[in-house]
Design brief:
Blueprint: E1 3-7, E2 17-23, E3 30-31, E4 36-41, E5 46-50, E6 55-60, E7 67-69, E8 73-78, H1 139-143, E9 177-178, H2 180-189, E10 204-205, H3 207-215, H4 256-269, E11 274-282, H5 284-294, H6 306-320, E12 326-329, E13 334-337, E14 343-345, E15 347-349, E16 352-354, E17 357-358, H7 366-381, H8 387-390, E18 395-398, E19 418-422, E20 426-433, E21 439-454, H9 460-475, H10 479-483
Parallel strand pairs: 9-10, 14-18, 18-19
Antiparallel strand pairs: 1-8, 2-4, 2-7, 3-6, 4-5, 6-8, 11-21, 12-13, 14-17, 15-16, 19-21, 20-21
Length: 484
């Protein structure tokens, strides 16, 4: 027989390590070529790894929860053939580049791209190499494809000393059933899934099961993973021990998406000179349009929210003000105007805030935009957003209104030059002028829009015109017929 060892592939983009999230196979299992055997988490995304050979799983060489370096052996396979141990081959996944036959670098994970010269490895803490200086990618290189989020969120706290768990009755034996985000939540909270009583279909452990088990009662709120496209009155709080219970201090390691977000936001805030402008508008006609679309046959299978109208309005406003959709090339000292819109939507997920983007949103109809936002939301909720979906954005919308917030001064995503903040829509008294010029006070739907922009390439006049055009469409969506 021949035992083949598969090593952790190089994801590129300056990433040099990954955390083991879930094994999908066990020793003795039979696998086929391209079967997904493992799920890992990098600083960019959750990624499933396929196996490049068929055979029998001989051994799992790393454990769930471990953070390992690129090139670390992770699984061995008995292919049932004679011969010496073979090196790991490139996984056959759509969009990947095959490893060179002469023993060069491993395959590139889906959604990443090989970065020229990105061969340095960051020394692991506690390793013999940790004392030696190692080449590391610059901050810009680390965040260029991440499309991280424009605002901070309360991280899920890791309870270091949870109360002793009372083992629950075993459900069918074997490994507890739970989705990867739930497993991560349990790990962060120090909960043993084997002791949790499942309430989900087919014995699957849910978020509520984990948090209720931790608190010992049903009153502890489960961690929410609300998307910015879901108009909820307030944001759900992260699961925590009751205040004052347990240890007096808790520490949560900063890694993965949160670490990349922090680096990106610091880089953006201290590189691009931010300017923010606000406008308050009556969006009653937008709310009426949303109600009509919800009742229409064409939109019956998609979710229609005011965010959809704003997304369409942004595309039209960019067409009228193309200078907003540009970037500053520091190395070349050039302004790069982009004649397409990859629209980012900030999203709160179990892994932190991320900004996946809708490619070529400028070419989509309202219905296609609704479908794209729905797909983006579903993928992010499941924690399956891939790196390619978070890179290449040109402009972003962050909807703080879902948290009941009126407005904010968001930080521009690296690689972009503007970000739009959408506040809560509230019923308020408003001065309405009739056709005869008479004013009266009426109850209207009112919201605030804000736009932060890079003042190196966007001056006050351009930024103001863009914001004014956005407001005009939300105040009267019929204006889109004139501009569209």
């Amino acid at each position: 027989m021949a035992i083949k060892t598969f090593n952790l592939p190089d994801p590129g983009e300056g990433l040099v390590e990954a955390e083991i999230v879930e094994w999908k196979v066990s020793p003795g299992d039979t696998v086929k070529v391209n079967d997904m055997v493992l799920e890992i988490e990098t600083a960019k995304s959750l990624v499933e790894l396929p196996i490049p050979w068929a055979g029998t799983v001989k051994a799992l060489l790393v454990e769930v929860g471990q953070t390992i370096d690129v090139g670390t052996p992770i699984i061995s396979i008995d292919d049932g053939q004679g011969g010496d141990e073979a090196p790991a081959a490139a996984p056959s996944v759509p969009g990947e580049k095959a490893a060179p036959a002469d023993g060069g670098s491993e395959a590139i994970l889906v959604g990443y791209g090989a970065k020229a010269g990105a061969t340095a490895r960051r020394a692991r803490k506690g390793s013999p190499a940790a004392a030696a200086p190692a080449a590391t990618p610059t901050e810009t290189e680390q965040v260029a494809a991440a499309s991280p989020v424009p605002e901070a969120a309360t991280p899920a706290a890791r309870v270091e000393s949870p109360a002793p768990a009372v083992p629950a009755p075993s459900v069918g034996g074997g490994r507890p059933k739970a989705k990867p985000p739930v497993r991560k939540l349990a790990k962060d909270l120090g909960v043993d899934l084997a002791s949790v009583t499942p309430t989900g279909a087919d014995g699957v452990i849910t978020r509520d099961d984990v948090t209720n088990h931790l608190s010992g009662v049903n009153g502890l709120a489960a961690q929410g993973d609300s998307m910015v496209s879901s108009p909820a009155p307030s944001a759900p709080s992260a699961p925590r021990m009751p205040f004052g219970a347990g240890e007096r201090e808790e520490r949560t390691p900063i890694k993965g998406v949160r670490k990349m977000t922090a680096q990106a936001m610091v880089g953006s805030a201290f590189t691009a000179p931010h300017v923010t402008e606000w406008i308050t508008i009556d969006v009653t006609k937008t709310m009426e349009l949303v109600d009509r679309l919800k009742g229409s046959r064409e939109f019956k299978d998609v979710k229609v929210t005011p965010l959809l109208v704003l997304a369409r309005a942004l595309v039209l406003a960019v067409r009228r003000n193309p200078g907003m959709n540009a970037t500053w090339d520091e190395a070349a000292q050039e302004i790069v105007q982009k004649n397409y819109v990859n629209l980012g939507i900030a999203a709160a997920t179990p892994r932190g805030l991320i900004v996946p983007n809708i490619k070529d949103a400028h070419a989509m109809t309202m219905l296609e935009l609704a479908q794209a936002i729905g797909a983006l939301t579903a993928t992010a909720r499941e924690g399956r957003t891939q790196p390619a979906e978070m890179s290449g954005g040109t402009m972003t919308i962050t909807n703080v209104g879902v948290f009941g917030v009126d407005s904010g001064t968001p930080i521009i995503n690296p690689g972009e030059s503007a970000i739009v903040c959408f506040g809560a829509i509230r019923k308020q008294p408003w001065v309405v002028t009739d056709a005869d010029g008479n004013d009266e006070i009426a109850i209207r739907h009112v919201t605030q829009l804000a736009v932060s922009f890079d003042h190196r390439l966007i001056d006050g006049e351009l930024g103001s015109r863009f914001l004014s055009d956005l407001a005009a469409i939300l105040a009267d969506p019929a204006q889109a017929l004139v501009w569209g």
